[in-house]
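Priority: medium. Attachment 1 of 2:
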């Protein structure tokens, strides 16, 4: 007998029975129409019921010609039966018997296995050895009547294929394995179906050609007679399904994960997720399914809270087919970065805000070979009690910036490599500054430049609608501060400004206006593009204006007090200057001063 047929028969046990022994359930040794018993094929069947000690089970045997014969037995006991038509036969529980089972292949014409070895010759007085009849076990489950409705197909379907799988194959009796079992279930015109299912804990897949299947994992069918399974949504098109796994042995549950399916390799996603064709959630057991996809190469990226983003692919999808990778996609925990900020308390009831930004490693090639970094978006965390926590999604080099809620930068770390959990300390050596810009006690929006208008952008602060600005300075004393308020066409320079430690810095703009014209002494015509300077008594520049095409200028915000006003212009060949005009400005005063340019004598 071929190995293929031996496998098809299943488990075959030897049972020595003498032909002509008592038959079961009233079956007569003579077949129909007086067929002699020695022409009837004897076979021994044993129904093995799942989680049932003893029960009456009606089996049905069916041969290749469609002839059926009912065989009533009791589970757990071997019964010798006689099959009156030519085999082989497929035996399973009869419909409506209350039991469900896979077909068992039975061929009464097979010879029993050769016991092996040479038998000693007798003296002719021994009795002939009895014929050995094989025993065929028929595993059966209590039947559960399952019903549901198929939705999604564009046109009515005649049947749906229900695939079954084992939940825990390592611990179960192999005789009751459902791996590869299929049930063809008829579907009515309205999509409703009803079929007998095995009463056990089982994986179920509803499958229809050209559609994405629907999975029902670890579905309990035992302990009930009927089970309504709701709607089975079978979406036309291909699908990509699988499992992501985390923890030792891949047994940790997954929390808050999504799978992005893309047509391009996520390793080259540099401007976001524009290439993603669909995004699906991951179940707690790690299962995901992206239905309704088209053919071609697909990559996936799995993003989870507190996990390193996982990438896999490419997976080649055929048209209207299912792709289910056998390997689970492993997830690693993200790195925990704890940033401590000193001093812990920000000024004026604000909050420190920490920003983590990915930067280029100092040794990009070496870092990539050793740590395989990914590309990660910027993270923001509020510093609480002097501490900020980041879940870094993967290996990489980063910078840490500490600012307040208004965006003023106070310091940070320029370079930090994160390849495992780690802690970092940021000591702020900058002086916090909180101030307000006003004009005659009215808040002003504008720009405040500490160190003059040519200063670093880190020392340039923009005021809000209420005139407030926040920032950080590398020192507290002796600052030159330039203020530009475009809405008021106002510019003003402050000198020797000290930043107070316990109260806001108030910069009060002067509501004064100095205007006039600048003429050229040599031509008597208006002089354009002439710089008009306003200096204090100690020679410091406190304001500046430039004349227009008609020679006119206007300066608003010149500080009250003693002031020297002069004009100067550099031409291609010489400097032109005016005589200085000195006066004392009062608050809210308007003054007109005309100036005449003459060539400066060396």
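Attachment 2 of 2:
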């Amino acid at each position: 007998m071929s190995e293929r047929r031996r496998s098809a028969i299943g488990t075959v046990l030897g049972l020595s029975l003498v032909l002509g022994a008592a038959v079961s359930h009233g079956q007569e040794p003579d077949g129909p129409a007086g067929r002699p018993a020695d022409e009837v094929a004897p076979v021994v069947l044993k129904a093995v019921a799942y989680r049932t000690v003893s029960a009456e089970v009606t089996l049905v045997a069916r041969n290749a010609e469609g002839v059926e014969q009912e065989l009533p037995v009791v589970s757990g006991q071997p019964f010798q039966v006689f099959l009156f038509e030519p085999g082989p036969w497929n035996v399973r529980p009869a419909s409506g018997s209350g039991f469900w089972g896979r077909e068992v292949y039975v061929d009464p014409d097979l010879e029993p296995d050769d016991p092996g070895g040479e038998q000693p010759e007798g003296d002719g007085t021994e009795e002939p050895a009895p014929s050995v009849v094989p025993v065929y076990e028929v595993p059966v489950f209590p039947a559960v009547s399952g019903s549901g409705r198929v939705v999604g197909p564009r046109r009515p379907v005649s049947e749906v294929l229900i695939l079954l799988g084992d939940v825990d194959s390592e611990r179960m009796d192999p005789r009751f394995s459902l791996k590869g079992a299929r049930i063809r279930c008829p579907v009515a015109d309205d999509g409703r179906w009803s079929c007998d299912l095995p009463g056990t804990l089982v994986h179920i897949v509803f499958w229809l050609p050209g559609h994405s299947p629907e999975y029902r994992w670890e579905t309990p069918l035992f302990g009930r007679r009927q089970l309504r399974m709701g709607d089975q949504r079978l979406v036309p098109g291909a699908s990509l399904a699988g499992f992501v796994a985390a923890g030792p042995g891949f047994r940790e549950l997954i929390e808050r994960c999504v799978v992005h399916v893309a047509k391009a390799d996520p390793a080259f996603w540099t401007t976001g997720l524009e290439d993603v064709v669909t995004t699906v959630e991951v179940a707690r057991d790690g299962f995901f399914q992206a239905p309704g996809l088209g053919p071609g190469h697909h990559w996936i990226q799995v993003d989870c809270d507190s996990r390193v983003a996982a990438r896999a692919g490419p997976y080649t999808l055929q048209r209207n087919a299912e792709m289910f990778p056998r390997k689970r996609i492993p997830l690693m925990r993200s790195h925990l970065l704890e940033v401590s900020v000193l001093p812990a308390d920000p000024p004026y009831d604000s909050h420190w805000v920490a920003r983590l930004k990915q930067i280029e490693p100092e040794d990009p090639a070496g870092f990539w070979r050793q740590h395989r970094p990914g590309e990660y978006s910027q993270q923001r965390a509020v510093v609480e009690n002097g501490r900020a926590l980041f879940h870094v999604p993967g290996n990489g080099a980063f910078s840490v910036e500490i600012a307040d809620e208004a965006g003023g930068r106070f310091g940070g770390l320029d370079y930090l490599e994160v390849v495992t959990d780690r802690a970092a300390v940021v000591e702020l050596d900058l002086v916090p500054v909180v101030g307000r810009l006003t004009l005659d006690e009215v808040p002003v929006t504008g720009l405040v430049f500490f160190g003059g208008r040519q200063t670093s952008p880190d020392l340039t602060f923009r005021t809000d609608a209420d005139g407030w600005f926040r920032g950080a300075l590398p020192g507290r004393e002796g600052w030159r501060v330039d203020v530009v308020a475009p809405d008021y066409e106002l510019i003003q320079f402050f000198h020797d400004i000290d930043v107070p430690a316990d109260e806001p810095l108030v910069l009060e703009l002067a509501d004064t206006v100095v205007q006039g014209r600048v003429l050229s002494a040599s031509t008597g015509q208006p002089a354009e593009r002439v710089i008009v300077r306003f200096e204090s008594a100690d020679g410091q520049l406190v304001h500046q204006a430039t004349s227009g095409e008609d020679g006119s200028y206007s300066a608003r915000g010149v500080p009250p007090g003693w002031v020297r006003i002069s004009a100067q212009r550099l031409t291609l060949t010489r400097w032109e200057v005016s005589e200085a005009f000195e006066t004392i400005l009062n608050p809210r005063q308007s003054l007109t001063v005309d100036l005449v340019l003459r060539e400066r004598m060396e």
